[in-house]
Amino acid sequence: MDSLQILLGILSPGVMLVIFAGVLIGIIVGAIPGLNGAIGISLLLPITFTLEPQIGLLLLGGIYMGGMYGGSITAILLNVPGDVVAAPAAMEGYPLTKQGRSKEALYYSIFSSMFGGVIGVLILIFFTPPLARFALQFGPAEMFFIALSGLVVIGALGGNIYKSLFAVFFGLFISTIGVDAITASQRFTLGNINLRSGISVVPVVLGLFCLAEMFLNIGKKANEVVTYKEQNITRMTVIKEILRHKMLVFKGSMIGTFVGLLPGVGTTLAVFLSYGEAKRVSKNPELFENGNVEGIIAAESANNATVGSTMVPLLALGVPGSPTTAIIAGALIIHGIILGPSLFVQRPDVAYTFIFGMMMTVVAMTVIGAFGIKYFAYILKIKMEYIVPTVLVFTLFGAYSLRNNVFDILIALVLGVVGAIFKKTGVPLAPIIIGVVLGGLIETNLVRSLTIANARQVSLLQYMLTNPLAIALLAMVCVIFYVVIKMRMKMKSM
Amino acid sequence: MKKKLVLLIALTLTLSLFAMGCNDNGGEQGAFPNGNIQIIVPYSAGGGGDTVARILADGLGDELDVQINVINREGAGGELGIAEIAASDADGYTLGVFGYPDNFVLEHTRDTDFTFDDLEYLAAFDDMPMGIFAGPGSEFETIEDIIAYGEANPGGITIGESGALGLLHVLAFSDHLGIETSPVNFEGGGELMNAILGAHVDLASTSSMSHDPIMDGGGHPIGFAAAERMDMFPDVPTFKELGFDLEMGVSRVLVVPAGVPDEVKTVLTEALDAIGNDPELKERFENAALPYRYLDYDRVNEVLQRSNDTLLPVIESNQQRFE
C-alpha cells in the first residue's frame, strides 16, 4: 500500500465520519467532570473490535485528542475542570469568564490545543524511532529527577509560600495512602480494603475542584456568579495573538512531547510544568490566576501535544506509557497486531493510517471547537440552581466510573468539603494535585534506584549520576529551583 | 426557548445516567439464563485478562443468547475485583474472569476477604507461562551466564517484575538456580518493558506475551517456566530442559461464586464446553497472542489443585518478601 492510497483512505467520507465522531465524543466526555478520554475510550473499546483495526484506532485516537481539549470548556465556563489536565485552564480561564471574556478564553483554549496537537502529531510522524530510543534512556534515576522538577515548579505557581507548602505536603500525604508497591506494607489504610490500592488523582480533582466549587455555589443566583456577555472577538485576532506567543506554544508543546514520552509520568505533570514555565517567563506574572491567557496557551498546548508523543513508545516499542495508551494497545492486541518496530513493516497500512489520521483528529477538534464555542457559552445562561445539581450528579458518576467503585465517590465528597474549606482559606489547590501525582513517582523510583544501587554495590548517588542524562536532569532541577527562588524574592520586593 | 432546550438536554442526560446504573440483572423466573449476565474483571481495560473476558463475553453471550457485559473492577493488584466476585450473588448472573494464580497468591500473602474455595472454577482458557528475558546488549546469553554471575556476585543481578506473580517467579527462579538476585518492582507491563529494553535492569520476569515486543526491541528470552515448548515460540527452551524443574504461569479462568445451583452450573459448563472446543475461539485467542488451552470443569479443578500444591511452598518460604 503506498502513501497516496493511505492518504485517500483517511480522507474517505466513512473514515472522516469516524474521526469526527470520535473527537466529538472525546470533547463531550472531556467536558463532563469526572469522565475523561480514558473512560470514553474504554467505553467504546468493544465497538472497535468489529471495525477494521486502523478505523477503530482512529476512533479511539479521536476520543483521546478531543478529550484533552474538552476539559477546558467546563473549566473556563464553570471553574469545573472536566479533566485533571484542564485544571490550569480553570485557574486562568474562569477569571476571564468572570470578566465577561469567556469567548476569548475559549478561543485561546481551542487554538492553543490545535497548535499543541499539530506539533505532537508531527513529532509522532517524523521522529518516532529516535524518540522511542530516547525514551528508553529514562530509568529510575532519570524519572526521579523529572518528578522532582515537577515538585520544584510548584514554587512558581504563586500564592502564599507556607500555604503552598502545606498544600503540596497534603498532596504527598494522599499519595502515600495504600499498599506500598515495593514492600507491600499498608499505610494509612485503616484496614479498609478500598484504601489498599491508594487514592487516585481523579476523585481528588473531582472533589477539590468540581465538588468544592459547586458546594460554594449552592444558593447563589446565576448572575451573582457570572454574567454572559457577547464579545466582539474574531478567531483571527486570537490566532494572531497566540502566534505572538509562539515561544510559549513551542515550549508548551515540547514539554508536552517529552513528558508524554515517559512511561507512567502522565500528562498532568506536563501541563503544570508548562504552566509554571509560562508564569516564570511572563512579563506580568502577577496577572496569573487573575485571568492570564498565557497560562491557557501554555497548558492547553502542552496537553494536546502529549497525545502524539504518548503514542511514540506505544507504536515503536509496544510500551504503553499511560492508561489511555494501554487501552489502545488492547484494541490492537485483539486484532492480533503486535506493537513494536515490526508494526511498521508487517502492518504499514494500520501504522501509517493511524499516525497520519491523527492529524485529522486535530483538524476535527479545531473545527468542532472553533465553531461550537458560541453554543458552549450557552452554559452560562443556565441558572445556577440547575447547574449545581447537574454537575454534582456528573461528578459523582464520574468518580464512580473510574473503577466502578462507590468508595471513590466517598473520597470525592470528603475532598469536596476539604476543597471548599481550602478555597475559603486561600490554600492553593494545584500543588495538592501535583503532590498526589508525583508522590508515588518519586517514591517508587527512589526505591528502585536504591535496589539497583545495592545490587551493583555502588552508593545511591553514584548510581543516580552515572548517566549523563541524569546529570543534565539534576542540573535542570537546580536551575528551576534557583529561578523560582529568584522569582519569589522579586515578587516579595514588588 | 434555548434555555429550556439546554435544560431538557441536561435533564435527559442526568436521567439516562441513572438508568445506566439500573442494570436489569437476574430474572428469577424461568430457566437460566433469563436476563443480562455480567463478567467482573479485576483489572483495567486493555490488558490480557480484559481481552480474554471480552472474547468470552462475546462467545458465551452468543451461545446462551443473552447480553454479557464486562465490568472492570481494578485495584489492589486484582484483590478488589476478586473479592467482589466472591461476595456477589451465587445465581449465575455474575461471573468472573481473571488470571489464576492471582487469587491464590493474594490469599496467601495478604489478609484477603476471599479464599480459594469461595470461588468455583468452571473453565480455563489459556496457558501463558512466565519467562525470563534479557535486554538488548545483555551479557547474559544463557542460563549458565546467569548462574556464573550470580554465584560470583550474590544479589548482583537485578530482575524487573510487575505484580505478585512476577515477583514469585523471580524468587522461585533464583531458588532453583541457587543464586541470590535483586527483584525490582515496576507498575505494570509498560514500565517493565521500558526498563528491560532500556537496560535499566539486567533481566525481566514477565509472561510469554512480552516475547515479541522484547525480541523486536533487541532483547532475547532465556527460557520459559513451561511444561513443554510453546507452539508459538518453539525456539525458546523450557527451564525443565535446562535442568530446573520450574513451572509457573498465568491461566485465565472463568469462575462463579461458590454455591451456584447445580442446574445453573450445568447450563454454564455446557455452554463453555461448546465454545471452548470450537476452533473459532482458539483462533480468536491466538490472534490476540494468547496461547489457547481449554480446560473443562473437571480438568481445571484438577490442574489448579496441583498448581496450588507447587506454589504454596514457594510462597511460604519467601513470605517475608511479600510483607
Any chance you could write out the topology, listing elements then pairs?
The complex is a heterodimer of chains A (494) and B (323).
Chain A: H1 3-11, H2 13-31, H3 37-48, H4 53-78, H5 87-98, H6 102-136, H7 140-153, H8 161-176, E1 178-179, E2 186-187, H9 193-196, H10 201-217, H11 222-225, H12 235-244, H13 246-261, H14 267-281, H15 293-317, H16 323-333, H17 342-346, H18 348-376, H19 384-403, H20 406-425, H21 430-455, H22 460-464, H23 468-493
Antiparallel strand pairs in A: 1-2
Helix pairs in contact in A: 1-18, 2-3, 2-4, 2-18, 3-4, 3-16, 4-5, 4-6, 4-15, 4-16, 4-18, 5-6, 5-15, 6-12, 6-13, 6-15, 6-18, 7-14, 7-21, 7-23, 8-21, 10-19, 10-20, 13-14, 13-15, 14-15, 19-20
Chain B: H1 2-21, E1 37-41, H2 48-64, E2 68-72, H3 79-87, E3 94-100, H4 102-109, E4 119-126, E5 128-134, H5 143-152, E6 157-161, H6 164-177, E7 181-185, H7 189-197, E8 203-207, H8 211-216, E9 220-224, E10 249-257, H9 262-276, H10 279-287, E11 292-295, H11 297-317, H12 319-322
Parallel strand pairs in B: 1-2, 1-3, 6-7, 6-8
Antiparallel strand pairs in B: 3-10, 4-10, 4-11, 5-8, 5-9, 5-10
Helix pairs in contact in B: 2-9, 4-11
Corresponding CATH architecture of the largest domain in chain B: 3-Layer(aba) Sandwich
- Output the strand order for the largest sheet of chain A: 1-2
N- and C-termini, Cα separation of chain A: 63 Å
Biggest sheet descriptor of chain A? 2 strands, antiparallel
Class of secondary structure makeup of chain A: mainly alpha
Mean pLDDT over all positions of chain B? 87
- What kind of sheet is the major sheet of chain B? 11 strands, mixed
The name of the CATH topology of the largest domain in chain B is D-Maltodextrin-Binding Protein, domain 2
Q: What is the number of independent domains of chain B?
A: 2
Core attributes:
heterodimer, A: 494 residues, mainly alpha, two-stranded antiparallel ribbon, 23 helices, 1% strand, B: 323 residues, alpha/beta, D-Maltodextrin-Binding Protein, domain 2, 2 domains, eleven-stranded mixed beta sheet, 44% helix, globular
